[in-house]
DNA sequence: CGCGATTATTTTAAGCTTAAACTATCAGCC
DNA sequence: GGCTGATAGTTTAAGCTTAAAATAATCGCG
């Protein structure tokens, strides 16, 4: 299987053809994805069962909780790594539910500020406590040293990915 | 235990006070999520730009590629970790696009088998080659040793999460 | 000042995703 | 043979998500 087929290396495509098969990286990526999906699905279903709240709503409230003075939609969008248009509807639903409030900035009338309401803050506090326990439970099989090591490696991966993405961008628009 | 530092339950510290603060695990989880989202979004946008295909479609085709004899929807659902109902529509679109084909099992008429068509196989082969390069590029900042280590730690995390989820299930329905 | 470029957000269309209810089929059992 | 329960998929309603186009406000610069 996968016998070393002859590869015609022209000067354009040196990086990409056969030399290495990228199998290790692909397996690592799939494993990373599996872990994330596993945790995410578990948290999603617990949030629904216990608090009748969706994961995106929880995430949004968590961001606002970290910044009590509120944030603009643009900031939220980049911190949550979701598209701008996504937030419009999500924020709308949370406003309807009385958990957050929006106000147009006076300084710049394009900007919309969003913040937790007191009731949203209280609701989030309840959820966050259990959420922390759930996460801790899911990660409980890792020792403190392993946790640290994993943190370090993921940090390195984050840096690597960002730099590869930047390089690709530079290549496209030089 | 439970060092009684005076904790004022204000909006800053709600997450972190009581029995243990779970802060390290929470940060680790957020970092894991960030890495996955970063890679996933990059791959998604490249697949769209380069092949005009969505990530879920690519993932489905990747699963079928690994199993040339085809799979049932149930197997696909559990391997892809998506809901059953999700697949119905996704498969429908790929059938319309001529990339895969469905046939009802003769042995058990509830079961639907799905497999790549020759043209789907060819299309996937093209995409997979570049996809592998992209992933390798994103992970290029990690040494071989680090890749292995990360793999090992994620494996451990996977085991930990699964066992925590099983424990929670046992607690609910004993 | 006024105009073109930029920035922040919303809108739109298409597609993805889930949970829950539903349909159809099968397997075991008397 | 005809229940009973389990299993495989589909449907439905709601919500999430994106990319791209549109709107609206601000900024920079002549």
What attributes does this structure have?
homodimer; 174 residues; mainly alpha; Arc Repressor Mutant, subunit A; DNA-binding
Beta-strand segment tally of chain A: 3
Distance between the termini of chain A: 41 Å
Strand order of the largest sheet of chain A: 1-3-2
Measured by residues with Cβ under 8 Å of the partner chain's Cβ, the largest interface is: A-B, 63 and 63 residues
- Any idea what the CATH architecture of the domain at 54-121 in chain A is? Orthogonal Bundle
CATH class category label of the domain at 54-121 in chain A: Mainly Alpha
Report the CATH superfamily of the domain at 54-121 in chain A.
Winged helix-like DNA-binding domain superfamily/Winged helix DNA-binding domain
CA gyration radius of chain A, whole angstroms: 22 Å
Low-confidence stretches of chain A: 1-18
Which quaternary structure do these chains form?
Answer: homodimer
Instruction: Provide mean pLDDT of chain A, rounded.
Output: 89
The succession of helices and strands of chain A, N to C, reads: HHEHHEEHH
Tell me the major beta sheet of chain A. Answer: 3 strands, antiparallel
Proportion of β residues of chain A? 5-15%
* Total of helices of chain A: 6
Helix percent of chain A reads 55-70%
Per the CATH scheme, the topology name of the domain at 54-121 in chain A is Arc Repressor Mutant, subunit A
